[in-house]
Design a protein that fits this description.
Aspartate Aminotransferase, domain 1; single chain; binds 4'-deoxy-4'-aminopyridoxal-5'-phosphate; globular; alpha/beta; Aspartate Aminotransferase, domain 2
Length: 381
């Protein structure tokens, strides 16, 4: 067993060796530009891109022509929300979202507020869940978008996608979801859940960083959204710029593997996560699990440790790689806004640790972590 132990899979994942293997030829012998129409180099690249598009679409029960490749979930969220703003404003100018979204949604909304958009940020309950009634009560005649994340990156709470999709459809409002943390961890079906737009990112499911996609429902108002990157009209005009063929091939392969292996991976992850969590709860006093115990990602537990200073705790965990708050905002020393919005005090939010497991997490690593966390917390106290 090698130290430190990586338990931060919600931050990013290593590239699966099978994914890397599929990617490698596209760095060298098959280096063509997928937009080159006149020779074999281009055709090979294009074929690989279209194959990957099919693989991504399959994972979420979409059609391949509904998939637009981007640089990741941040870009997908920007494209979805800003692109829809451009076709709706000023006739419709209201967005409904939730306080615990990733900054890649919240900051897009903040930006649009400066341009005249009005945003309702729903407050989740203490487990991180929002209700359909909350969304219903927030609806306005000028609401053009409901954007609710599939599962939260810090606490793992899974939102009621199907019900939100039904409500959105009933009121003829578009429904976007940031599914970055759900993709590859949960079975996702954009048809069943009436999702119009879905953002995903490669590096959370064992594909490389810097590649992602946006699902845009065909023949819907969503498909009228305005591109945010202008140029050579790649991706049917939705996203100009020479395609990241290697990344796309990697994302496609990762999606195919996720589809095949999701169920068995999850059984193992739930078993390991539950062991880690229950042993910490049983063996360390004054600890509490954050999030929704029955409705959360299979690979994650977020735990608050009373009676210790959060920053010192994180720094003391030298042999395990975990995170407090979200790694994406770890440049700031603010307590996690997600934990604060589900009611934790600043002190408890600081003293909360996210353990996120992945397909390379072993039983031995979890056993070590249980012992190590107990010893470290006791020492600090
Ligand atoms: N949304 C969520 C829920 C995330 O967890 C992340 C990554 N931390 C992002 C968006 C941003 O994704 P990317 O790194 O692909 O831009």
């Amino acid at each position: 067993m090698k130290l430190p132990i990586y338990l931060d899979y919600n931050s990013t994942t290593p590239v699966d060796s099978r994914v890397l293997e599929k990617m490698l030829p596209f760095f060298s012998e098959n280096f063509g530009n997928s937009a080159s129409r006149s020779h074999l180099f281009g055709w090979k690249a294009q074929e690989a891109v279209e194959n990957a598009r099919e693989q991504v679409a399959n994972l979420i029960n979409a059609e391949s022509k509904e998939i637009v490749f981007t640089s990741g979930a941040t870009e997908s969220n920007n494209l979805a929300i800003k692109g829809l703003f451009e076709i709706n404003y000023p006739n419709k100018k209201h967005i409904i979202t939730i306080q615990t979204e990733h900054k890649a949604v919240l900051d897009v909304c903040k930006h649009l507020e400066k341009l005249g958009v009005e945003v309702t940020y729903l407050q989740p309950d203490y487990t991180g869940l929002i209700t359909i009634e909350q969304i219903k009560n927030a609806l306005r005649p000028d609401t053009f978008l409901i954007s609710v994340m599939y599962a939260n990156n810090e606490i793992g709470t899974i939102q009621p996608m199907k019900k939100i999709g039904e409500l959105a459809q009933e009121h003829n409002i578009l429904f976007h979801t940031d599914a970055t943390q759900a993709i590859g961890k949960l079975e996702i079906d954009v048809q069943k859940d009436n999702i119009d737009l879905l953002s995903l990112s490669g590096h959370k499911l064992y594909a490389p960083k810097g590649i992602g996609a946006l699902f845009i429902r065909k023949n819907s108002r969503a498909s009228k959204l305005i591109a945010q990157m202008d140029g050579g009209k790649h991706e049917r005009g939705f996203r100009s710029g020479t395609l990241n063929v290697t990344g796309i091939v990697g994302l496609g392969e990762a999606c195919e593997l996720a589809k095949k292996e999701l169920t068995t991976d999850n059984q193992r992850l739930i078993m390991l996560r539950n062991k880690l969590e229950s042993e910490i709860l049983q063996n360390i006093s004054d600890v509490k699990v954050n999030g929704n115990i029955t409705n959360r990602l299979p690979n994650l537990t977020n735990i608050s440790f009373g009676g210790v200073d959060g920053e010192t705790l994180l720094m003391s965990f030298r042999d395990i790689a975990v995170s407090s708050g979200s790694a994406c905002t770890s440049a700031s020393v603010e307590p996690s806004y997600v934990l604060k919005s589900i009611g934790l005090s600043d002190v408890m939010a600081y003293a909360s640790i996210r353990f996120s497991l992945g397909k390379y997490t072993s039983q031995a690593e979890i056993d070590f972590t249980i012992k190590y966390v107990k010893e470290t917390v006791e020492l600090l106290r």
